[in-house]
Amino acid sequence: MTINSTNNLYLELLKKTILFEIWQEHEQYLPANVNIPTEFNTFIQTHNLKLVHQIQPNKEKRTYGLDWPAIAHSMIGRKRLDQLHNAMTTVINENIPGDFIETGVWRGGSCIFMRGFLQAYNIQNRKVWVADSFQGLPAPNPEKYPKDTGDTLYTIDYLRVSLEEVQQNFKKYDLLDDQVTFLKGWFKDTLPIAPIKNLAIARLDGDLYESTMDSLTNLFHKISPGGFIIIDDYALPTCQAAVTDFREQHNITEPLIQIDHYGVYWRKPLCIY
Question: What is the CATH number of the domain that holds 202?
Answer without folding.
Answer: 3.40.50.150
